[in-house]
Amino acid sequence: MKNILLPILTLLLLTACSPNNPTPQHNSTSNQGSTSAILQLDTKGHTALINDIVVTNSGDIISASDDKTVRVWDSTTGKEKRKILGEIGSGSAGKIYAIALSSDNRYLAIGGYFDNTTVKANINPGRIRIYNYQTGKLIKLLKSHTNVVYDLSFSKDGKYLISGSGDFTAKIWEVEKSFRLIDTIRTHSKQVYGVGIFKKSGRYYAVTAGLDNRVSLYSISDKKAIKTHKLNHNLDYIAISNNHIAVAGDSHQIDIYNHSLEPIKTIKSQTKPEELAYSRDGRFLIAGSRSDFNYEMVNIYTTNSYSLYSSFKKHKNLTMAVNFIEKNGKLLAVSGGGNNSEIYIWRFGKDFTKVITKIEGVGQRVWSVGVKGDRVAWGNTWTKTKGKSKFQKS
User: Mean per-residue pLDDT for 230-248?
Assistant: First the structure.
C-alpha cells in the first residue's frame, strides 16, 4: 500500500495549485532550479489560476495560467487546439502572468516569472517571450526587466508593446524594429501591475498603474510623465477604450478617467474587481472578481453611465481573466477562473446571462493533501480555516 501511495501523492501535488493561498501573490522569490524530470498530468484544461485571456481575430481564445502553459481554444466547440509550452520548474518558476496579441495576430507576447534557474548568475527573471502566433515558434527574447513581468499590451496599430514589471518600471518596445527597447518609464516607486497604450491626435501615450497607489499618464513622444493621480489603495488593472481609462486594484471600486487622466466616475462594487476589459466598440466594461464575502460574480457595466448591467455567477472563487468575443454578430463575454479553472463564454443582457460554451479539464483543483499512516487524503474545495484546509476525500 505504501509503495502505491508515493506516486499517487506525487501526482496530486503536481496538479495542486497554490494550496495555501488561492489569490495571486505580489511578491516573488527566487528558488534554485532543478535538472530533475518533472511529471505533470494533462487534464485537457488548466490546472491552476488563469491569469489572462485574449481573443484572436478568428474567434479563438488564448488563455495563460499559473500552471505554466498557454492554451488555444476553439470558442465554438470548447476543445483545445494547441498549447504553447515554455519553462517549467519548482515553485513559481515558469508561471505566466500576462499575454498580449498584436492586432494583426502576428505576435504573441508572454510574460511572467521566467529564467528562475539563472537568477544567481545575475540573469534576470523578467524576460518576455515573443512568439510567431501562427506557427507557435519562439522568435525573440526581450531582456531588460530585472524582475517578473506582470502585464503586457500592444498598441492598437501594433507599433508598440508595453510591459510592466516588479522592478518598478514599465518599458516601451518598438515592434517593427525587431522589438527594440526605446524607453523605460520610471514614474512608480513600487511594482507596476497594469499597463496600456493609446493614440490621440497622432501621438502615443502610455498609462501605467502600480502598488504605489498611482496611475500615471506618460507621453511616449516626449518621453515624460504628463500627469499622475494617486488613490488610497494598490492598483493592479488597466483597461483603455477610445474615450476612457478604467483602473482597479485592492478595493471595492473601479475608477474611470478620460484620456487626459481627469477623473470621470468611481464605480462602487460589492466585489473586489480583478482584471478589466472594454468591448471593442467601447459600449461595455467587464470586471472579474476576487472571492470576497461570498460575492463571486463577474460584472458588466454600460459605459454611457457606468451602471451595472449584468452579473455572471457561475464561477466559484477567484476570476481574474475576462474579455469579450464577437460570434455571429453577437457580443459575448469570456471569463476564466473558479475552483476548477474553467472558462465560460456567455451571453449577457440587462440582468440576465446564459452560458454558451464551458471549457474545463477532466480533473479538479487540489487545494489540500495529507498523509497519515497508510492513508492519503485530499480536498477539492477551498475550506481554509485557522490556517488549515479540510479534506473531502481519502
Answer: 97
What does the CA dihedral 155, 156, 157, 158 come to, rounded to 10 degrees? Answer: 50
- Give the CA count within 13 Å in the CB-facing half-sphere of 352: 3
Beta-bridge partners for 229: 215
Quick one: 7 exposed, middle or buried, by C-beta within 10 A (0-12, 13-18, 19+)?
exposed
How confident is the model over 184-206, as pLDDT tens digits? 999 999 999 999 999 999 999 99
pLDDT of residue 43: 75
23-27, 102-106, 122-126, 132-136, range with the lowest pLDDT: 23-27
pLDDT, tens only, 132-142: 999 999 999 99
Counting residues of the chain whose pLDDT is more than 90, the rounded percentage is 69
- Count of positions (residues) in the chain: 394
In this structure, the number of other CB atoms found within 10 A of the CB of residue 83 comes to 11
pLDDT tens profile 334-386: 999 988 899 999 999 998 999 999 998 776 667 788 898 899 988 877 666 66
The amino acid at 234: N
361, 47 contact by CB (below 8 A): yes
- Amino acid symbol at 157: D
Cβ distance 310 to 40 under 8 Å?
Answer: no
Average pLDDT, integer, range 118-145:
82
